[in-house]
Design goal:
This is Zinc finger MYM-type protein 1-like. GO terms for molecular function: protein dimerization activity. The protein is α+β, with helices and mostly antiparallel strands. Helices cover about 55% and strands about 10% of the residues. Helix 4 packs across helix 17, helix 7 runs antiparallel to helix 9 and helix 16 packs across helix 17. About 5% of the residues have low confidence.
Length: about 450
């Protein structure tokens, strides 16, 4: 009996060791966004794929590994087959996402959503979370992707709800949404909005100057623009049309096109039309209500010893959140704001704080977020408002790397798992091998347990 118990104990120990070494190889490949499988994984193959080759390298240089893998492990107990790999990868992704969800807990959060297609042309919806962590830091994390059949509003809403519910996140906690929100903005405004850590106050200050520049370009920019284009065409031997001549579209019969001069076609129908579209886009996105909201937000700006502080505007800002600030809460906030500004404006630790993100962190660091609870809640609600979809755009950049045309047969679940661990590498590295192995064991009934 003692001999049998020892044999069982050794089998369990070897099983866990094989599983652990397989996991370590997979973790390395996941962090690098590398492919796992090979076209030919037989023992006679010259290249069995990254996973098997990496495990073979460990086998060659590590005696502990050599004793328990490949030839020293029988059949399915090698723990290297495709099914085992997928389960381990899925366990890695779920443990990584678990850490992210634990950071959000039951607090408010924003979502950033965008849609795109992979190397094989399949449509995917990517969702990122925007929230404030325990240290008061503004965080954006990739939650996952969803394969969608079409991009109608109903389909997208259903996909988002399904993904959030799958991670025990409540739709009622969403306080900010961005759906490809800044894709039409260019240059300085675009760069500012696309920064992951962008302070909404700084971005707001760029809206009016951008609109003014566009208006100036519309009024006085045509002659200079035409001169630059003409110089470029002459330099590169490109024919320049006579602006006083009539415009005729190439490849179409002249009788089917209205008779307009080139100057009208290029200046009015193209140059001015494009500028008008840009101005209309800015006006739609930053209407009177949005601008009022942004101006109220600016009153929380801590720069220059809280020079922008405006009690009435902050109270107005709180009114935009009736679910969080009842009439009684607004009365408490009214009283608390005066105490808040008197306290923080005299505290030297806040004198070097320049933006809302820094203010949030300093409030938590000094434990003043517990004293000024209503103000801190309002600050969090402002910070989680998504400005753009830069994070989800980075997801699709990662997707083109993780799922290239050479491996477009990767399934939806494995693609999602690979992206989670690759994009949120810093969180993945915090996940212990033990927690991954426990989840792996609990996924289904295994031949061995430990």
């Amino acid at each position: 009996m003692e001999s049998l118990n020892k044999q069982v104990s050794d089998m369990t120990r070897f099983y866990k060791s094989r599983l652990t070494y397989s996991l370590k190889c997979l973790r390395f490949l996941l962090c690098q966004g590398l492919i796992f499988r090979g076209d030919d994984e037989s023992e006679s193959s010259e290249n069995m794929g990254n996973f098997h080759e990496l495990l073979a390298w460990l086998d060659e240089f590590n005696d502990d590994v050599k004793q328990i893998v490949f030839k020293n492990a029988q059949g399915s107990y090698q723990m290297t087959c495709g099914g085992i790999q997928k389960d381990l990868i899925n366990s890695c992704a779920k443990e990584t996402t678990k850490l992210i969800i634990e950071e959000v807990k039951d607090d408010f959060f924003g979502i950033l959503v965008d849609e795109s297609s992979d190397a094989s042309g399949e449509e995917y919806l990517a969702v990122c979370l925007r929230y404030i962590d325990r240290k008061g830091r503004l965080i954006e994390r990739f939650l996952g992707i969803v394969h969608v059949e079409d991009t109608t509003a109903a389909s997208l809403k259903s996909a988002i709800q399904s993904l959030l519910m799958g991670h025990s996140l409540s739709m009622s906690k969403i306080r900010g949404q961005s759906y490809n929100g800044a894709s039409n903005m260019k240059d300085l405004l675009n760069n500012a909005l696309q920064r992951k850590d962008q302070d909404i106050i700084d971005a707001m200050t760029l809206v009016s100057p951008t609109k003014k520049q566009l208006q100036n370009l519309r009024s006085d920019g045509w002659e200079d623009f035409l001169s630059r284009v003409t110089s470029f065409c002459v330099k590169h031997d490109i024919e320049v049309p006579d602006m006083d001549g009539y415009y005729f579209p190439p490849g179409r019969a002249r009788r089917f096109f209205k008779k307009v001069k080139n100057i009208h076609r290029f200046q009015v129908e193209m140059f001015l039309s494009v500028i008008d579209l840009q101005l209309q886009e800015l006006t739609n996105r930053f209407d009177e209500v949005n601008m009022e909201l942004l101006m109220c937000m600016s009153s929380l700006n801590p720069a220059n010893s809280f020079a922008a502080f405006d009690k009435q505007r902050i109270l107005r800002l709180a009114e935009f959140y009736p679910n969080e600030f009842s009439t009684v809460d607004l009365m408490k906030l009214d009283f608390q704001l005066q105490v808040y500004i008197n306290d923080l404006s005299k505290d030297v630790r806040f004198q070097q704080v320049r933006d809302l993100g820094g203010l949030s962190c300093m409030l938590v660091e000094t434990n003043k977020h517990k004293i000024h609870r209503e103000v801190y809640l309002l600050l969090k609600l402002v910070l989680i408002l998504p400005m753009a979809t830069a994070s989800v755009e980075r997801v699709f950049s990662a997707m083109s790397f993780v799922k290239s045309k050479l491996r477009d047969s990767m399934g939806d679940q494995q693609l999602n798992d690979s992206l989670v661990t690759f994009i949120e590498k810093d969180m993945f590295l915090q996940v212990s091998d033990e927690s991954v192995l426990r989840r792996f064991q609990d996924m289904k009934t295994r031949r061995n347990n430990f």
